[in-house]
Design a protein that fits this description.
The protein has about 100 residues and is α+β, with helices and mostly antiparallel strands. The protein has a single domain (about 15-95), classed as Ribosomal Protein L24e, Chain: T. Helix content is about 35%, strand content about 30%. It contains 3 helices and 4 strands; from the N terminus they run ββββααα. It has helices at about 55-60, 65-70, 80-95; strands spanning about 15-20, 25-30, 35-40, 45-50. β1 (about 15-20) and β2 (about 25-30) form a beta hairpin. The longest helix is centred in the C-terminal third of the chain and has 19 residues, at about 80-95. The chain is elongated, with a radius of gyration of 17 Å. It starts with 12 loop residues before the first strand and ends with a helix. About 20% of the residues are buried. The mean pLDDT is about 95.
Length: about 100
């Protein structure tokens, strides 16, 4: 399982641990990933996603999973999240046409 947020695309960063004597050694900064189940109101289903805590706050701020996915850029979403986004857009366009 990769250490990458499925909604925002945030992944690990590489940096230095700097000692008191200014010796630098490589280290990595891992994102704060949490396993959550988010419900889609439009699709009427729940989805299990692995996202960062910051992305979870953003989802709540935007008003739920549906609104977050509609505003998000598809290039930074994971394949699973992009598939959910396409299903959502398809369902909304069908509802608008009817």
């Amino acid at each position: 399982m990769s250490r990458r947020c499925e909604l925002t695309g945030v992944n690990r960063q590489i940096g230095h641990k700097v000692s008191h004597s200014n010796i630098k050694t490589k280290r990595e900064f891992k994102p704060n990933l949490v396993d959550v189940t988010l419900a889609s109101d439009t699709l009427g289903r729940s989805f299990k996603l692995r996202i960062t805590a910051a992305a979870l706050r953003s989802v709540d701020h935007r008003g739920g999973l549906d609104q977050f996915l509609l505003k998000a850029d598809e290039s930074e979403l994971s394949e699973r999240a992009a598939k959910i986004r396409r299903e959502l857009k398809k369902k909304l366009s069908e509802a608008a046409a009817a």
